[in-house]
Amino acid sequence: MSDTSLLSSTEENNNSHPGNCFANTPAPPYVAVIFTSKKSVLSNSANDASTESTTNSAQNKCDTTSIPDYSMTAQHMLNLAHTMDGFLGEESVRDPHTHVGITVSYWRDNQAVLNWKQHTEHLEAQKNGRKYWYDNYSIRVCQVERAYTWTK
Predict the structure, then answer these.
(1) What does the mean pLDDT of the chain come to?
(2) In the chain, what are the domains?
(3) pLDDT tier at 7, thresholds 50, 70, 90
(4) Region class of 110: left (phi > 0), else alpha (psi between -120 and 50), else beta
(5) Are 104 and 15 in contact (CB under 8 A)?
């Protein structure tokens, strides 16, 4: 598996270091929200033509045309996060074989995280994630006290 297949396209966002996919965060302290998820196979086959469906016959009877598009929603959530007061940046990877992903978003403080968590469109995306896209996920909220960067 190639490491580059796991990197998101955060190079283009304003909150990343030029030439790489690392968020350009200020000096600590700030807050990191770590979202680790496993996408369901059904969500992958319904929304990604490049992924082969491995669903069983019962799942194949499901109408997947009504499932909201994961990729479009994820991009919309990233764009929306960029408009939120206190958003500092994000870093995201997903293994195309195991469907496990990790996204770390960085926020000025806990109030900014709470405002994001309670945003109406984000609440809808969370609901769709639980209903359609994820087998499971974990969220961890951390205070960043030290940060180091090395570049070759």
Answers:
(1) 81
(2) 3-144 (3.30.70.100)
(3) very low
(4) alpha
(5) no
pLDDT band at 11 (very low <50, low <70, confident <90, very high): very low
Task: Compute the distance between CA of residue 51 and CA of residue 44 in angstroms, rounded to an integer.
Answer: 6
Q: Is the peptide bond before 29 cis (omega within 30 degrees of 0)?
A: yes
Q: DSSP string spanning 24-67?
A: ---SSPEEEEEEEEEE-HHHHHHH-TTSPP---HHHHTS-GGGS
84: alpha, beta or left? (left if phi > 0; alpha if psi -120 to 50): beta
pLDDT tens profile 63-114: 556 788 999 999 999 999 999 999 999 999 999 999 999 999 999 999 999 9
Q: Which two tokens stand for residue 62?
A: 């499901």
User: SS3 for 83?
Assistant: helix
Residue for token pair 């955060």: 10
- How many other CB atoms are there within 10 angstroms of residue 114's CB atom? 13
